[in-house]
Amino acid sequence: MGTMMRETDPVGTEIDLGDSDDEDLAEDLDEDREEPQLLWKAELGDGMDEEEAVSPLVDVSDTKPLLKERDPRGVNDCLKVTFEDVIAEPVSVRSGDRVWIWSNALFEVTRVWIYRIVTVLLAVPISIITALLFAILSFLHIWFFSPCVHYILIITYWLQSLWSIVLDIGVRPFLTSAARCHSGIRLHLTQE
Predict the structure, then answer these.
(1) How far is CA 104 from the centre of its chain?
(2) Domain contains 40
(3) At 8, phi and psi to the nearest 5?
(4) 155 occurs within a structural domain
(5) How far apart are CA 172 and CA 32, in angstroms?
(6) Domains: count for the chain
């Protein structure tokens, strides 16, 4: 039996996202529900936990993509390292098969568990520190650097105008005439 979900939006339109066989069960749930804006599921299906099925406080659609794809922009693609990327034996020099298998297994287990242990110990403090640094940098950029740059641009507007005039009067005619003089030169390369 499929999972039946119904949600009533502010306009009053019902959206049916499940099987049509469970329509009576969903209507009963809609009538018994005290809070019309919360989404309740009729039954557990597809291996869902009870918390996922009936928790109105957590919007599962917001957390699921975050848990599945943790590097959507590929920032850390360089860290996709496997045992074969680090240790590779050529055909001429080889260790025993069991040594290779155990080394591979221990490498992967050690890499994963050390990462998890260090993450448990340091992830929260480092995330707080980096959030503070980014907040300070954002503050400095918004309230200090941007106004200073705009202030300098306003003050030096006359210098920009003067430089533009110097380029238009002195440099551009020279470069234009040089380009016209050299535009008639043709080179033909031949192989002997």
Answers:
(1) 30
(2) yes
(3) -105, 120
(4) no
(5) 81
(6) 1
pLDDT tens for residues 15-59?
A: 444 444 444 444 444 444 444 444 444 444 444 444 444 445 445
Residue type at 114 in one-letter notation: I
Task: State both tokens at 133.
Answer: 């640094």
Q: What is the rounded distance in angstroms from the CA atom of residue 130 to the CA atom of residue 119?
A: 15
User: Encoding tokens for residue 142?
Assistant: 């918004």
Phi-psi region of 45 (alpha: psi -120 to 50; beta: other; left: phi over 0): beta
Residue 26 lies in a domain: yes
Q: Does 44 reside within a domain?
A: yes
Residue-range definition of the domain harbouring residue 30? 1-76
**8-state DSSP, 71:** -
Percent of the chain at pLDDT > 90 equals 34
SS3 14: strand
Residues in Cβ contact with 35 at an 8 Å cutoff, skipping those fewer than 6 apart: 56
The encoded tokens of residue 175 equal 């470069």
